[in-house]
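<instruction>
Derive structure tokens from the sequence

<record> Sequence and structure tokens follow
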Amino acid sequence: MAAAPPAWGVQYVLSLPSEDAARAAAAELSGMGHRLTAVRAHDHFRFIPSSFWYGKPSMDPELERWWQVFSLAVHSGHARMALEPFLRSERIRVAQVARVHGGFQQGGSEGHAETLEGVFARDGLVHERPGAEVAVPCPLPEDPARPPAGPPWQRSAAGEPAAVVRAVVAVAERVYGSAQEAPDAVGWLLDAEFAFGEPYETAGQFLGDLVDSVAHQGTCTDTTVEAVPFLTELIRDDGVAPGCRLVLLCDLLRLAASGPAAAVSLADRTAALGGVREEPAADCLTRRAIGSALPVLMSRWETESDATRFALAALTALCDAHDQRVLPGLAALPAPAGSSRADVVSLAAVLLSDDRKGLAPALERLASWLPGLAEKAASPNADLRSLALAVLADLVLEDVLPNTSAL
């Protein structure tokens, strides 16, 4: 008989506007069966003389004078993967506790319960329930069945890594001439030392380095804005293999979605801090730069592959652009009724036609089989359009990228 898996722990972190609100939220979490619950001033280590951060400015000045709740929930009897649908519902429940008390769920961590309990910082401990566990329902909830995917796209070859590197460098030389004239994200391609570097094993490795230099870990900066014209030139250059062009187009899709995705992830925080959030300038300017490049990217619409048209349609929606070819092109994509792709195409069509009444039903259809979306939509503070744009980008990327070969 197989041994039972070790108990699993989840530590939640909540941010609340006052000590009273934090203590009230902590009491509620303890009442839900959490084993350990502590209340501390935000950035409490800034007030501990032995801490490196003692006396230093807050790392998050917006939360100056706020309070945090740290709470450990323990679940036993099941492997971690089997717990995911239940833990998702718990995250929704804990986030609601934070909202009720005027705050937001700031994050958390997971691991073996024994380990997490051993390292739990007990400063400010207000509730301790030795051996307490949050009851797990029997049977465990399961994620909804996902509809069948659409038909496979025509595969797009990426080419040999060395050929891809040569083509990209050639475009950089044509556009900038020298490393001194290129933006930081591109200059390394024209540096003399780059030519003598280790060869890339796959085109995907090289493209990964390229996009990371443009937007490190997906974060848009001024350098990202400057690099958009270069990425556009790569996508339209005949020397770059079709598979690489599609990957680069999807990179633009990720960048264009960075603003809406951040708005969704920070929706509860924004509401708790007063309901006004300025989109970072780099996110906004990156999306505008991509929107300005769309006419060039769309110039070969009639001869593009279906997968590329799908990505271009999503990019058009992300940039709030208009092109009379896109909606008919969406309708012509291989997306049979009842497939997951059909639901994604429907969402894209709603966004492109600015159908405000159709937005909620389109998201509800997707949420019926996409539990991650259902979790994000559980927040009453999530803007539907931002949510739709963020999920559209994710689902289109998930659909079209596996169809590039040799990456």
Summary: The chain has 17 helices and seven strands. The first helix runs from residue 19 to 31. The beta strands are 8-16, 36-41, 67-75, 104-112, 125-128, 156-157, 404-405.
